[in-house]
Structure formats: C-alpha cells, structure tokens
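Sequence in, structure out. Go.
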Amino acid sequence: MRNDNWWCGRFRGCGYKVTVPREAILEVLSLTDKHLSAEDIYLAVHKKYPAIGLTTVYRTLDILVSIGLIYKFDFGDGRARFELAEDSKGKKHHHHLICTKCGRIIDYTDFIDDEFELLQLVEKGLSKKYNFKISGHLIQFCGLCDKCR
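Output:
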C-alpha cells in the first residue's frame, strides 16, 4: 500500500490513521464504476488481503461514509451499495436511474446544472422554513430501463 493517495489527507484531517483495510477498500471502489455492496467489497479486498474480515469491512465503510469519502445508497434490493464521493479530480456529483425490474443502475449527469439551481432554491426554502441545516441530497429516479420496457 502506498500512502500517497489523495484520500490520506482526509483521513488525517478527520483524526483517523491510514490503515491497510481503509486503503484497500478505497482502492477497490476507485477501480470500479459499479455500486458495490459490503460483501462485494469484502470479496475483492479478501483476494489481496485475506486477513481483512467482513466485520472490518463493515466498520471501515461506516467510517468512510461518516467522513464523506464514500456514499451509501439503498437501491431497494435489500443491500446497501457504496461508491466514491470523489476521486483525485474532486467531487463526482451525479444521480441515479434505477430499473425496478432488473435492478440496473444508471449514473447520469445530464441536467445536473439545471437540477443544481432548482435544488439550491428548494434547499434554501426548506432550510429557512424548518430551521434545518441541509448538508446534502440524493436523487434517484425509479422506473423501467430500455431492456425491461
């Protein structure tokens, strides 16, 4: 493991050490564009680091979500899914289309600028009305993909 990855500073800034399991999980997530479950991540990490257990993977994922390095999603299949919140180039903001028949997940960035303006207005209004500090949002559209229609 190399400690020169872009995420090392985030760990240290949040008071966490860079450990082999933490780096291994981030490497697995950085090498895929899929939305992996904890079990998927464990299997990938376990191939290279057999001493890392499933409990360690779950604990590490909780930490990575809490410090904002990864996002945790519920796509309705009973398994939490994870993806990087950013990479070495910065934030990877996008939303999801979810097929309710086959489970396909499509990342999209179309209309993000238009959505951003609308969501800023909505967040500002909700924050003011409910005296609530909004720190983020998730947008998922559910329906049928082109293969299932």
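Check: The longest helix spans residues 112-130. The helical segments are 8-13, 20-30, 38-48, 54-66, 112-130.
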